[in-house]
Amino acid sequence: MKKYLLFIPLFVLLSFFQQAEAQRYGTAVGLRMGSNDFSRTFGLSAQQRVLKHVTLEGIVQSDFSRNTTFHLLVESHKPIISKRFNYYYGAGLSSGWEESKVKDPESMQIIHTYGNPTTGVDLIAGIEMTILNTVISLDYKPNVNLMGREEFFRGQVGISARTVLVKTKEQNKRKRKRARAKRKKNNDTFGDKLKNTFNFKNNQNP
């Protein structure tokens, strides 16, 4: 079953192409605080819009003691009221070092281990608001363990505050500028080839 869980991010990614553009930012970076039954983490979150409705989010978080994890998520955004207020959902992969608890069936004691290298699949769903060039979000991010710890499932609630570094309009403007530069370069190259061909024929037929 754990092997099939690796396909979850792919299925979610395919569903993104049916959604409409939502967020008002292209690049946003900031802080994230997470909480679950095991730890309270503090870390960094960075989001980058890669398509009109698809955003990549990278998260690095730690409790600076027993749990440090890295996450890469693909997310889809859809407006609730406007582009400033929307909900999002997605999936991705995670890895890191975590604590783990397991009950010994013979002694009935709880065995607590630390520094377990873990790998898992993340899901995420949340809401966000962009105001005063800042993105405030509240999310729920469950994690399904593939290897490294005994607990199969762990959920985490997170609050993030990210500063908008590049707005959507700026990102689209840069994209159009690069496209125009590429077309111009291709046209110039094609024109030079025609010119060289014409000059070559004239030289061959004086």
UniProtKB/TrEMBL annotation:
**Has keyword Signal?**
yes
Keywords attached to this entry: Signal
Recorded coiled-coil stretches: none
Write out the biased-composition intervals (Basic and acidic residues).
186-195
Instruction: Please list where the region (Disordered) is annotated.
Output: 169-206
Compositionally biased tracts (Polar residues): 196-206
Positions with biased composition (Basic residues): 172-185
Secretion signal, residue range per the UniProt entry: 1-22
> What domain of life?
Bacteria
Entry protein name: Outer membrane protein with beta-barrel domain
**Which organism was this protein described from?**
Mongoliibacter ruber
**What phylogenetic lineage does the species belong to?**
Bacteria, Pseudomonadati, Bacteroidota, Cytophagia, Cytophagales
